[in-house]
Every structure is written in structure tokens, then in C-alpha cells.
Amino acid sequence: MEAEAHIANTLGLELGRGEHFGNPWVLTPNDEILAGCQRLVDSSPGPVVLEVLIAALRTSYHLKRVHVLLTQIAGDAIKNWRGGERAFPNRDLLRHVSQVYRHGVMPEDLHFVLEMCSDPTLAPKKSADVEDLRVYWFSSLAKLKDPDVEAFCRKIVTEDLGRWTDYRFVEAMKIVARFWQPADAGSFTLISKQYPDSLTRRDAKRILQRKTT
To answer: Which of 23, 131, 166, 175 would disulfide-bridge 153, Cβ 3.0–4.6 Å?
Structure first.
């Protein structure tokens, strides 16, 4: 509630009874509102406030000005994460922004998205931690048609083949399939037979059949 009140005050809005940011039509992304959102992000509020702001903009992720905001939010969040801010609020913020970033991703975002997909600080640090925050960025990476995307994902698949320890493997495999080469048949045959997860084995088999028949 404090986060919503802070955002409403910054944007000069008044929420009605039962209204919350993220509900349809509560926030209309006109020039004035987006300028207020920019001021809010520039003020470096806490991750809880930024999470609510992201939810408030949920119908506008495709807009370029909103995408610029999301890029700034993600950039600040990863900077804080690398600086040691690893508590749940910042983790939740990184997860949320990565999951919605794909809606407005552009070719010029390639370097940033690759950076987020490869950042070692986002990888699990303990065997009990199965969340790899890099994985969520692959939905954005999949929308970028660039040789660097193919090279990056192919490297993940090649290096983890038979080891099955990289949580990014499945998403990388799907992208490699888009850049299919005849030599990939051997890798996908191995995946379809040996990968620990049955759904991934099934997907690899379907890709193999589609690409080789």
C-alpha cells in the first residue's frame, strides 16, 4: 500500500476504492504519466515500488518509452545485485522485469540481453537454489535474430551436452533449433535420449523429426 501511495503521489493520481495499479485502465500511459514514471525511476526508489510500477504499466510494455523505463529499471537492479543487494525484493524485481522485457525488445537491446543471459552473478550459487535468473531473459533473446544469438546459445548447448548442469540449456536448445544446421542432428539425438527431463527429451525428438524429415 505504501508503494502504491508513493507512485500515486508522484504521478498526481488518486486511486479509487478497490483500485490498484495493475488493474485495467487505472493508469493511462500518456505523455504526462510517462514523464512522471521517468521521474519516479530517476529518483531510485526501492525495488518494491518499482515492482508496483511495472505492474501498473502492464498494458504498455510494447511502447518504446515504457521499454526504455524497463531497461533503466533492469540496469539499476542488476547494478544493485552485483553490489550485493541480493534480498528477495531485488530478486523479485529482476525476475519481474526480465519476464516482461520481451514485449518491447529491440535489436539495439542485443548487447544488454546477452549480458543478462550470461551474467554469472545471476546463476544459482547453492545446490539447493534451482532458480537461475538468467533463464528469464531468453524469452527476449529468442526475439532477436542475430548471429550472436545463435553463437551464444550454440555454445551453451555444446558445452553442457551430456553434463546437463546449465539451467539455461533448454531455452538455448530451442533457440538453436531456429538456426538449425545439419550437424545439430547428433546433438539433438543425444538430448532426445539422455536429457534428464522427459518433456525436454520429447521436445528434442519433435524438433529432430521436424528438421530431418
So the answer is: 175
Q: Return the residue matching grid coordinates 521517468.
A: 38
Phi then psi dihedrals of residue 185, to 5 deg: -60, -40
DSSP assigned state of 56: H
- Let me know the angle formed at the C-alpha of 72 by 66 and 76, rounded to the nearest 5 degrees: 145
C-alpha cell belonging to residue 179 = 538456426
C-alpha cell at 143: 526475439
Question: Contact, 149 vs 141, CB < 8 A?
Answer: yes
CA atoms within 13 A on the CB side of 26: 21
For the segment 73-128, what is each residue's pLDDT rounded down to a tens digit?
Answer: 999 999 999 999 999 999 999 999 999 999 999 999 999 999 999 999 999 987 66
Distance CA 66, CA 34 (A): 8
pLDDT digits (tens, 9 = 90+) for 151-199: 999 999 999 999 999 999 999 999 999 999 999 999 999 999 999 999 9
Q: Would you say 161 and 187 are in contact if contact means Cβ atoms under 8 Å apart? A: yes
Place of cell 539447493: 128
